[in-house]
Design goal:
9-stranded antiparallel beta sheet; two-stranded antiparallel ribbon; about 140 residues
Length: about 140
């Protein structure tokens, strides 16, 4: 009888703890820690800035000085060359980090666009575009 009671209590405790835990995305570092070369592995929508979809699957994204300067290269569609950084690229963004250090603003001709870092880790980033809720998952390349 005692064993059944212990087993029942253990079962309910495990079940209760499993449902009471909310899984929140991990933020290991803020936008000041983002740097290097990343590959966009998936997106859940479009990131339209000045009539351009700036993040699509297979894009290579390079962060310089955090999100101060973002260079996006796209296979077969690169149209610019940066001699200083020695990189061919499709689109370049300049962001202004907000006080929360987890979101940044990209000023454009049509309006200011906000991106939020919703997950960050050693080899994975997830950005959400506040304009439409689209997300981009990036994997560390270098």
């Amino acid at each position: 009888m005692f064993k059944r009671l212990v087993l029942l209590v253990t079962f309910w405790a495990a079940l209760l703890s499993a449902f009471s835990c909310t899984k929140t995305p991990a933020i290991e570092y803020d936008l000041d820690g983002v740097e290097g070369k990343w590959l966009v592995t998936s997106t859940t929508g479009e990131f339209i800035i000045s009539h351009e979809n700036v993040f699509t699957t297979e894009d290579t994204v390079r962060f310089y000085n955090g999100v101060g300067s973002i260079v996006i290269s796209r296979p077969g569609q690169n149209r610019y060359y940066d001699e200083i950084k020695n990189v061919h690229y499709y689109y370049k963004l300049s962001g202004l980090v907000n006080e929360d250090r987890l979101s940044f603003l990209v000023p454009a001709a049509d309006k200011a666009h906000t991106f939020e870092l919703v997950e960050s880790g050693k080899d994975r980033l997830v950005f959400q575009y506040k304009g439409n809720g689209a997300k981009a998952v990036l994997k560390k390349e270098e």
